[in-house]
């Protein structure tokens, strides 16, 4: 019993160490991003006509901090994935360690693709649609806080959700998920993705559809990738333990 308790304590201490290292990395990336935050800000508003308004000095600081935080999150993803991999690596076989290690760069790439899709594809469409509603009726004026809050609320979830296929492949490789389970939970997953889409988009049908369709496609891609990984896993197990 004491040996078991000691083993659990060691795991908890290691987990705490991994979390602390990840947080330290996030803080370091945040500071680095904040140094160049004005350049990033100029890049984000280069296609915007006119300048954004601010209602006070604190709003400027909030905008700069939220931009730096998003950049830090993106940069921290490979580090966080590496710490998770190091935590579970002792329980994996040598071959599984090599295969799962290759997932780490993919997480960062898919996050960038996700926020790029949100920023370059979805954000202009939704913003243009909402702006067109005020044509001839209202004088539109953007504040920096409202503009960036709207932008980040729209694009950041895509950075996270676009990692779904790789996460599903990783969990399938570890034997936690399988394509059969994913297919059985398709209705519940669809419902959850629709709810997420409604929550992260403005209250209009066009925006909801623009978000729902890519998420459902991502889920189906995840199912197919899980099926491929699962079949390879079965073939490896059959090769290792042939039926006599």
Give a verbal description of the structure.
This protein has ten helices and no strands. The protein is mainly α and 244 residues long. The protein has helices at 2-35, 37-44, 57-88, 94-101, 103-132, 144-161, 164-173, 179-184, 186-200, 205-240. The model has no long low-confidence stretch (mean pLDDT 85). Helix 1 runs antiparallel to helix 3 (57-88), helix 2 (37-44) crosses helix 3 and helix 9 packs antiparallel against helix 10. The radius of gyration is 22 Å and the shape is globular.
List the helices and strands and how they pair.
Layout (H helix, E strand, L loop, with lengths): L1 H34 L1 H8 L12 H32 L5 H8 L1 H30 L11 H18 L2 H10 L5 H6 L1 H15 L4 H36 L4
Write a concise synopsis of the structure shown.
Belongs to the TatC family. With 244 residues, the protein is mainly alpha-helical.
Please give a handful of descriptors for the protein shown.
mainly alpha, 244 residues, 10 helices, cell membrane, translocation, 81% helix, globular, proton motive force dependent protein transmembrane transporter activity, membrane
- How do the helices and strands follow one another from N- to C-terminus? HHHHHHHHHH
Radius of gyration: 22 Å
First CA to last CA: what distance? 40 Å
The description of the largest β-sheet is: none
How much helix is in the residues? over 70%
Q: Would you tell me the structural class of the helices and strands?
A: mainly alpha
Enumerate how many helices there are, as a single number.
Answer: 10
Mean pLDDT score, rounded? 85
What portion of residues belong to β-strands?
under 5%
Note poorly predicted spans.
none
- Global morphology: globular
Quantity of strands, as a count: 0
